[in-house]
UniProtKB/TrEMBL annotation:
This is cysteine desulfurase. Its EC number is 2.8.1.7. Residues 614-707 form the Rhodanese domain. InterPro entries: Aminotrans_V_dom (IPR000192), Aminotrans_V_PyrdxlP_BS (IPR020578), PyrdxlP-dep_Trfase (IPR015424), PyrdxlP-dep_Trfase_major (IPR015421), PyrdxlP-dep_Trfase_small (IPR015422), Rhodanese-like_dom (IPR001763), Rhodanese-like_dom_sf (IPR036873). It comes from the Bacteria.
Amino acid sequence: MNQDIYLDANATSPVLPSAIAAAANAMAGCYGNPSSTHATGLRAKVLLDGVRERARRVLGAGSGSVIFTSGATEGIQTAVLSVLCAVRERQAAGDTVGDLLLYGQTEHKAVPEALAHWNRLIGTGLTLRALPVDGEGRHRLDVLRQLAPRAAMICTMAANNETGAVSDLEAIDAALRVTASKALWMVDSVQALGKLPLALADTRIDYAPFSGHKLYAPKGIGMLYVREGAPYTALMAGGGQEGGQRSGTENMAGIAALGAVLAELEEGDTFAPHARLHAFRERLVASLREALPGIVFNTPLHASLPTTINFSVPGLSGRDLLDVFEAAGVRVSAGSACSAAKAAPSYVLEAMQLNEWRCASAVRMSFGPAVDEAFIDSACERIARCGQAIRTGGLAPASLGQGSRHDLIRFGLDGANTWLALDAASGSCVVIDPVAPLAERISSIIRSRDFRVRGIIGTSAGEPGASVRAALASLLASQVDFAESGDAFGWPAASDSISLDDGTRADAIAFGRQVLARVPASSGAATGQAYLLGEGTSGRLWADDVRYAFTGAAPSDMLHEAVQHMTALLNRDTILCPTSDAAGVMCTTAGANDAGDCRALELAPEGLEDFLHAHPDALVIDVREPWEHAAGAPVLGGRAAISVPLSRLAAELPQWMRGGQRPLVFCCRLGTRSLRAAQCLARAGYRNAWHLDGGLALAEAAMGTGRDAA
Ligand code: PLP
């Protein structure tokens, strides 16, 4: 079994065994309410007081107080509420309090959101102002010095969760003193605990929120440091727990677990010292450099937490990188909010004014101070495997798809299909219906293979297709092998012609042994064109040899109607490749019918083992991209999956359709892509196409099988 390599500690961490034991002990043996006066309650109170004392020592709280909260978000609300209530009182008394709520531009969203929320609710009417950072993510002290006299509150995190950039708190402190700022100062210290020295009472920091789950305690427990004399307003009123500062019966299991972590920090040897963490990071950085040539680090390595690495790789999207790491069992996260299709650029990297591509494709790798040498060894080995997968799986622009047997690739985006027909033997290709967002990617694939481009054509005339085709042609200028004709579909000026099966003649582009012929898209007034692709023989393209028909933007439920006028030119197994993919059809066969049932057969992870046992001829097919397959090839019930990426399904469909309907079990990471593959086959009339519900993660857990270490 592929062990998870968890490298997402800045999101959350596993729970230390000693913390689990302490929580269990608190629940089993020390379950009293610390407010009760009987012995059971007193025992809980002793535990509570003990953890608080330890926390005070670890944080260097001096005469300040430490309040237990549910986490940092609560601590942030409490600090902001406290400041704004004090501001309102001072406003009412006619004091000058400043008009700005100043926060670092790279703060966790909890900070500006809390400022806006409470400012609105309390009606303090202050202006929120983001304090810019420099290219390394450090606060602009010149701007701070200008604005500090006007600020009622200043929020500057100790270390950034995306990049690990460590703030220069001493310089901020000095800027506040030198400008005689009266602002109250909150430092979100979530990412600093256990990684940076803390002596809060020696600073002029007024509030410092912490979160247990970022350092091996469970979720739902946190702390808030409040400097002695700093204004305080309770967020929660009630039974008067925490000295009336935070009502509600204490989360004793969480507090006990946090206590165990603090004990490790204070006197244990579980956490690696700073120098060792730096050495660990250097090893990871070296592995990344080796595996991902051209990598750029968005983390300022000399001024950041030794446990965080944020990077981008030219030519590779964040999504692609995450998929490869995920396939290799390496858990990392996008440096930015990332949805399946599009990555929203990271506001943190944008604030550092990094290039657009770096902001959009960043990946964050972070580990906790409890990791050891063996863990780093495994992580480096896995990173190397990812690099290898990217090279052999065809993701790296320099090595894409060498020797691939596939001759048709589909690129799907927002309900549109772009098709790339390749002829490996002659090293030539044709692009059909390119869309703007994919132009870069398609051109980099063609360039890296050094293919000659015999045509860039559309199934419909005019814009926006014409501009995209022109843009792609100019990106591929040195490889374009055709003279533009000015034709509305991009059809080349000097093309051949060929006879079709019905005796008519059609314009044709020959590339290798293949030929692409153009025919009107419909029998009526021709507004579009369709293309037939197959091997021509003696100047003729027989219907039996037409493997693909590019049908244009016919609605998916009318695909067959759209090709009715040319059925004499196709065979039953010809794959219909539409441009519009609104209904997720991808492709189907000419012999199927539009009203066909496209429901996929579903396999539950628990049922997979029995299914494979009962069907020794079943083929397990991994529809993830080749680089994901190469990073971790699934072996389910002892059966190795073959790789047929969703983008290459059309190329495989003909041979499956001709086969004997053996059971096909499609799988992917989460079950989304495999569902589409099985639906596509069902629609094409294949009655034995299954999809593994819930994806590989659930199946492997259910079957206790793993992935190839190769
Ligand atoms: N501040 C920073 C820097 C964080 O990384 C996080 C967690 O993502 C938070 C605040 C919020 O912490 P919690 O999950 O404890 O509410």
